[in-house]
Amino acid sequence: MEGKRSFVFVFGVLFTFLVFSFSVSPLTAVGAEKIYRMKIQSGYPHGDLSMELLKDFAAAAEKRSNGQLKISVFAAPEIVPTDQLFDATKVGTIDMLHCGGTFWGGIVPVGEIEFGVPYGFKITEAKTPKESVETIRKFFFESGFVDLLRKEYSKHGLYWLDMHTYGEVPITVATKCIQTCEDVKGVKIRDEGIWTKWHNMVGWRGTTSVAPEDTYMALKLGTLDASQWDVSAITGMKWHEVAPYLIRGMENDTAVGHILINMKKWNALPDDLKEALKGAAKDYWNITFEAYQKETQVVENMVKTGEVKKCQLDEDCIKKHAEAAYELWNELAAKDEASAEAIKLIKEWRGIK
pLDDT, tens digit, for every residue of 27-41? Predict the structure, then answer.
């Protein structure tokens, strides 16, 4: 009898365990899933709008993954300076980076074209800003350009996740009004990548030597006369306080940024979490578009009140900038096979010979 009672007791315990296992709530089951903690650093400092919006990308990733993806967000240079960000992500010190391809043009030449060559992403036929940026996104994903980018970044151990918009770029602020190419001569302007050469071709004195976080003081002290960025140069980093002139006539409808992921970290993710990250990145694309449109209106209101003073380049100077831009496109195409293919795709898309 004792043995029988022991058997009944053990059977009862096992039965209770099985019933509990099958009746456990979905929330408990999800909670038992592996949590993936990741770090993303932007190439931009606090005050840059796209950087501040990265918290929304992280929130979207957590929501889409049912809490399995936990992404910590950092601004430049909280973990590493911007010029070390590419390598830090490549070796896995940081899991993901948020920046623009023009910053890596010396490493991945096609990144310059991805970011936006001068006058390359100006969609004259678009009736609205939304139509313009969606036309550009469609080009990236339907022309084969994204496949080309992923191939080139993969050579450096990085996965190109998705694109985002910075609104109209460049937003150029200056310490004086600039309207003609005579006004341009000798103006010291902070820029990025090939934009430096482009500016120099027209008479500016372009430089990449001043970090974004140091630009306010450089403009104030006269180390710089002008700087380009996106609209958060004014609304976030307040450069207009020391450089109140907004120079118009050189801008694309958008510049394109990216999120790159360490390839080993990407490959280690389950497929459903890869899809969650892709979905979050698309959410971030929409978030950046809406936010930059609102900030652009803020700047327009500042122009109306006189807090920012708008200066328009004349037609002759715009023409000279355009001629220099197309010359630069051809120089970029000669850098490597990927750049040649990218320029070919853009020329076919825009109908430029």
Answer: 333 446 899 999 999
pLDDT digits (tens, 9 = 90+) for 321-338: 999 999 999 999 999 999
pLDDT in tens, 185-228: 999 999 988 899 999 999 999 998 898 889 999 999 999 999 99
Burial class (CB in 10 A: 0-12, 13-18, 19+), 21: exposed
Which tokens in the block code for residue 235? Answer: 């609304």
Closest by CA position to 194, among listed 82, 86, 113, 84: 113
- Ordered by where they begin, the domains of the chain are 35-166+255-299 (3.40.190.170), 171-252+305-335 (3.40.190.10)
Name residue 229's beta-bridge partners: 171
Q: Are 158 and 94 in contact (CB under 8 A)?
A: no
- Strand 245-248 and strand 205-207: pairing? unpaired
Residue 180 · residue 317 · CB < 8 Å: yes
Give the DSSP H/E element, type plus range, for residue 260: strand 256-262
Start-to-end Cα distance in the chain: 96
**245 forms bridges with which residues in the sheet?**
174, 309
Question: What residues have CB less than 8 Å from 182, skipping those under 6 apart?
Answer: none
Q: How far apart are CA 300 and CA 292, in angstroms?
A: 12
DSSP state of 82: G
